Amino acid sequence: MNIAILGLGYVGVTAAACLASQGHYVIGIDPNATKVNAVLEGRSPITEPRIGELIAEAREQGLITANVALGSEVAMCDVAIVCVGTPSAVDGSHNMSYIAEVSRQLAELVKAHPDASLTVAYRSTVRPGTMENLIQPIFDGVLGGDSARIELVYYPEFLRESSAVDDYFSPPKIVIGTKDGDRCAKIDKINEGITAPVFYVRYPESEITKFVDNSFHAVKIAFANEIGRVCTQLGISAAEVHKIFVSDTKLNVSPYYLRPGGAFGGSCLPKDVRALQHIARVSGSSTHLIDSLITSNEAHKSFLFDHATRGLEHGAKVLLLGIAFKNASDDLRESPNIDLARMLITAGYQLSIFDQYVTPQNLIGQNLGALSNSPFIRELLVDQSVVESTHWDLVIDSRGSADKYALTTSRTINISRLA
């Protein structure tokens, strides 16, 4: 099939690379010329394992291209997959301006091409009601009686950064939302060969799925970290308590996200928790646990700082291993490690930062914006030679990877695991 990917962020680039690897012809659309040029040069615009290789192979085979604007080639595609951003607004809701604008542009494009018949699948996280109350009215308003030429689908993704390719081809589940919960032949074709539970539901059930999943992931992380704090304060091994807890797969479900360690961050969990809080407020619901998640997470950041620097003298040399929110990624969005770095600087420590995956000159989009909001990162980043040639009073390891380096240090604290 011919498939357009609208938005070349983490979700869009992963979809483009994986679909092209399956033999589909893919055109990526993004107004950011840096991202587009990277794809055209056979490179990945993001740091994510295996993506670069897949894009390079797809370019060699003529299966992927990119552009900064919608054109006739998109109108003639079988499917357009929308992966634009839905960042947090001031009130905690998702900002739908990019969703609305790309929908309007698609509608105008289809109107200008009478032969076009397009399935538009949205992967961006949107609040319940968006498909019926925002997106469908946009297409109806532009196309009128011709809106039947557009098949609208909500098709959430379940990708984890650093393992996005594996998750694409082996997802925990496939959820497809249509107006009446009916099947979509083109999405079924995209998913041929992928083994996972498949759920065909109406739009609202599919739209709330990511909020439920990500908020529960946040619940698990916050719960595990609160238990970890109590254990650490009482001199109890949080690692042993964790081992006992997750051994119960009958009642405790799964070990994922439940190991006490770092605070949650990144592009999904904080944003979706805030959005679900907003949804609960405007719907008159009471969600006391969900309302406490961000507060608990902020408290955990302060705890990690106190735990790591306990007994450390003012002015000590501190190395922070890892500034991105997750290993093998350059994603700086809402990284708790940036907050930890700020605390260390404010407290008067001589801080240096090492993250082999973060190269300031390669950052684009929201990651570049995160760097602009925290300019000290650029100034404090050091290379591996400095890491291995300096005596550190304290190494704070956010990755559990300190053993890989020839460190000279008085103390190492692994904040990715409270033990």
TrEMBL record:
Binding-site list for NAD(+): D30, K35, T86, T125, E161, K271, R333
Query: Which superkingdom?
Result: Bacteria
**Keyword annotations for this protein?**
NAD, Oxidoreductase
Which InterPro entries does the protein's record reference? 6-PGluconate_DH-like_C_sf, NAD(P)-bd_dom_sf, UDP-Glc/GDP-Man, UDP-Glc/GDP-Man_DH_C, UDP-Glc/GDP-Man_DH_C_sf, UDP-Glc/GDP-Man_DH_dimer, UDP-Glc/GDP-Man_DH_N, UDPglc_DH_bac
Instruction: Please state the Enzyme Commission number of this protein.
Output: 1.1.1.22
What chemistry does it catalyse, as a reaction equation?
Answer: UDP-alpha-D-glucose + 2 NAD(+) + H2O = UDP-alpha-D-glucuronate + 2 NADH + 3 H(+)
Which residues participate in substrate binding? Answer: F158, L159, R160, E161, K210, Y257, L258, R259, P260, G261, G265, K326
Task: Tell me which residues this entry annotates as catalytic.
Answer: C268 (nucleophile)
Quote the pathway field. Nucleotide-sugar biosynthesis; UDP-alpha-D-glucuronate biosynthesis; UDP-alpha-D-glucuronate from UDP-alpha-D-glucose: step 1/1
SUPFAM superfamilies cross-referenced by the UniProt entry: 6-phosphogluconate dehydrogenase C-terminal domain-like, NAD(P)-binding Rossmann-fold domains, UDP-glucose/GDP-mannose dehydrogenase C-terminal domain
First-tier enzyme category under EC: oxidoreductase
What is the name of the protein in this document?
UDP-glucose 6-dehydrogenase
- The organism named in the record is Mycolicibacterium vanbaalenii (strain DSM 7251 / JCM 13017 / BCRC 16820 / KCTC 9966 / NRRL B-24157 / PYR-1)
